[in-house]
Amino acid sequence: MIALENVCKAFPLNGGKLEVLRGISAEIPLGGITAIVGRSGCGKTTLLRLLAGLDVPDSGRILLPEACRVATVFQEARLMPWLNCRQNVAFGLGFREKRARARRLDQLIARVGLAGFEKAYPAQLSGGMQQRCALARALAVEPELILLDEPFAALDYFTRRQMQRELRRIQQESGKTLVLVTHNIDEALILGDQVLAMAGGRVARQFDLQDQSWPRDVLAPQLIEIKRQILSEMEGETP
Fold this sequence. Notes:
Shape: globular
Strand content: 25-35%
Low-confidence stretches: none
Number of strands: 9
Number of helices: 7
Largest sheet: 6 strands, mixed
Distance between the termini: 32 Å
């Protein structure tokens, strides 16, 4: 279990401080997808940065499993344009015996559906394919926790739907723990084993969706009701 205990974080602003996280507490189960939704400025990305170890809380605690390795997938794929797909994925592998390294690369590229595009450069890949490559690079370091910050926001509707299915398949196959930040409530309901709705720098509501079968229909009455409750929390927050 990953636990957040009364975590606070503020940043300097005009000689004062901007409170972004105000005593946030939550539990993130291992081996599933936790989706975090909320309005812009509610602290979603700050929370992700704290989980990644890129920032530290001003107070409170973040409890991760011992020796928990973390990888991050950003909204932009952030691939190195001078490296091809295989080389970008290999960048996360570090030093390994040559044959084991090649076998691991083949497995990762096949897992994200990029077999046949190993020698393609980022400029030759579609947006969805670039994000698959970025996901393979994250998986290459064999993380226990993968953080995803709006990874599909720049994709068109159909590519986004395809990537959502791919992400769910990869999580089920790998058993990794994923934390997904998204503005898209439907995406959170489609992917999340649990959904955390943030407002005012805190977790306003927590929804357990583990009993919802996959694939999911966002027009199902239960999911429509949860979406209504999430919107109520978000609309009640002062921007």
